[in-house]
């Protein structure tokens, strides 16, 4: 029996001494302070070093002081410097120190946000965030929010609410009867809808072959004039912010037509819904208030920490009945029971960081944040054009699509940018052409960072061209 560790004594000693937390803090501070002196993407060597983590499940209890140090020594350099100033990959946001600090505190709380009785503070902050978001986005007063991991999950919830509501109105209780023999619903979406929308539709049993895909214009916006006939058994999915161009669907027209037909409209506004937060971009989101459900990320444009997405639904009972887990008649408690609005039961209290982020920025700060991202995207486009790169989209919001002329050169330049370490962008395909996709998503990016990054583009092109000439002369 002597070889059994006394876990109570050992773990209690970690708790009493608190040295681990000081150690973690010191590693974290070093990480923050050296973020600007390292390549944005980890070097091949640091990635190879990750093999130190490959070991069988250890038998003995570990010494946290040693493995925290290991995590910092090998883990920190193998992170992507996404919280720095020059990460432009995918559509990923930065993070504010205020929210990270609040999250540290909440990590120590380790709350389960499923029910009010499990965590009154998490429930209260969810209620506050819900009110603030409905106010900021100017959505109908009845709108309720579910706090989920991201827009993928938020879209799934919104579309589940739509499906159940539309079928219930047609006299079909999908919760009890399932989809076999259910009345048919029409699903209408733009051909440029995000991949996660297709995933959600597939999970919900709609079948990708059954969707009506509406043509889009040169910027990826749904052509409202091409909408099919809508009726009371139609679900329309529109988009605020195309992941490539950043363009917004024409909501006034789409929602106007849908309202007349009593169709349900869901808006995927993962990063674009925040356009509503600035007077300068609000025209892009005009009409969203006429939709029925919305999905949005706080971890993109708003710069809240991962993972933080929100589903918003005008009709509380539609959302709750789609996400119920008992099938029993819905009972609203006196307090907010968060699991009524999410697919999960147990969940961490992500409302803490969301609340801290919203409180840190305030309305004015959000406006400045959104304007800053848009201004830097425009600056990128202007400066790159001066350097004879081709910009393939209009700058609607924070996205810039860059081509170097032919696809082979574009891809070669992208590879040079990615290995160069000054900044990081991803690649994409737009209207059949390879592009470098710039997504300006962090509060931390300054005009100076844009200039440095444009120079990195120019240098990358020089290197790519010289490699091409060498190959040709061989
Ligand atoms: C990022 C994104 C999603 C997916 O959101 P996650 O938070 O990654 O789940 C959906 N739609 C659009 C338009 C996006 O940009």
Largest sheet: 7 strands, mixed
Q: What global shape is seen? A: globular
Small-molecule binders here are: pyridoxal-5'-phosphate
Count of domain modules: 3
CATH top level of the largest domain is Alpha Beta
In the predicted model, the low-confidence regions spanning at least 5 consecutive residues are none
Mean pLDDT metric: 96
Beta fraction: 5-15%
As laid out across the biggest beta sheet, the strand order is 1-7-6-5-4-2-3
Determine the CATH superfamily of the largest domain: Type I PLP-dependent aspartate aminotransferase-like (Major domain)
Gyration radius, in Å: 24 Å
- What is the CATH architecture term of the largest domain? 3-Layer(aba) Sandwich
Number of strands: 11
What would you call the structural class?
alpha/beta
Helix and strand pattern: HHHHHHEHHEHEEHEHEEHHEEHEEH
Estimate the helix proportion, in percent: 40-55%
């Amino acid at each position: 029996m002597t070889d059994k560790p006394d876990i109570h004594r050992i773990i209690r000693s970690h708790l009493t001494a608190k040295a681990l937390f000081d150690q973690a803090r010191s590693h974290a501070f070093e990480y923050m302070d050296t973020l600007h002196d390292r390549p944005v993407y980890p070097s091949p060597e640091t990635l190879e070093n990750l093999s130190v983590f490959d070991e069988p499940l250890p038998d003995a209890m570990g010494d946290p002081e040693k493995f925290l140090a290991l995590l910092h020594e090998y883990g920190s350099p193998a992170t992507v410097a996404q919280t720095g100033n020059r990460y432009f990959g995918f559509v990923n946001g930065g993070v504010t120190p205020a929210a990270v600090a609040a999250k540290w505190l909440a990590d120590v709380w380790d709350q389960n946000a499923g029910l009010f009785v499990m965590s009154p503070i998490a429930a209260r902050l969810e209620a506050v965030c819900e009110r603030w978001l409905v106010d900021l986005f100017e959505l109908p007063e009845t709108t309720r929010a579910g706090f989920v991991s991201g827009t993928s999950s938020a879209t799934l919830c919104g579309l589940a609410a739509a499906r159940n509501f539309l079928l219930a109105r047609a006299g079909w209780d999908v919760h009890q009867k399932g989809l076999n023999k259910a009345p048919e619903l029409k699903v209408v979406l733009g051909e440029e809808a995000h991949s996660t929308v297709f995933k959600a539709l597939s999970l919900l049993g709609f079948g990708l072959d059954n969707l009506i895909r509406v043509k889009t214009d040169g910027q990826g916006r749904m052509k409202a004039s091409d909408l099919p006939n809508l009726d009371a058994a139609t679900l329309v999915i529109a988009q605020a912010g195309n992941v490539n161009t950043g363009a917004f669907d024409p909501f006034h027209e789409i929602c106007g037509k849908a309202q007349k037909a009593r169709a349900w409209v869901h808006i995927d506004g993962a990063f674009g819904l925040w356009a509503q937060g600035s007077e300068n971009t609000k025209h892009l989101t005009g009409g969203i208030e006429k939709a029925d459900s919305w999905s949005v990320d706080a971890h993109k444009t708003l710069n809240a920490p991962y993972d933080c997405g929100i589903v918003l639904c005008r009709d509380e009972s539609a959302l709750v009945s789609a996400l119920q887990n008992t099938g029993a008649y819905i009972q609203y408690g006196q307090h907010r029971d968060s699991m009524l609005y999410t697919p999960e039961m147990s969940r961490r209290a992500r409302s803490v960081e969301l609340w801290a982020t919203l409180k840190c920025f305030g309305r004015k700060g959000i406006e400045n944040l959104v304007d800053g991202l848009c201004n830097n995207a425009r600056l990128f486009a202007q400066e790159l054009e001066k350097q004879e790169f081709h910009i393939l989209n209009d700058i609607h919001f924070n996205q810039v699509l860059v081509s170097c002329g032919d696809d082979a050169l574009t891809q070669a330049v992208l590879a040079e940018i990615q290995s160069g370490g000054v900044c990081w962008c991803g690649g994409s395909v737009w209207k059949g052409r390879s592009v470098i996709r710039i997504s300006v998503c962090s509060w931390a990016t300054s005009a100076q960072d844009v200039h440095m990054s444009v120079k990195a583009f120019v240098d990358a092109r020089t290197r790519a061209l010289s490699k091409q000439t060498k190959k040709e002369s061989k």
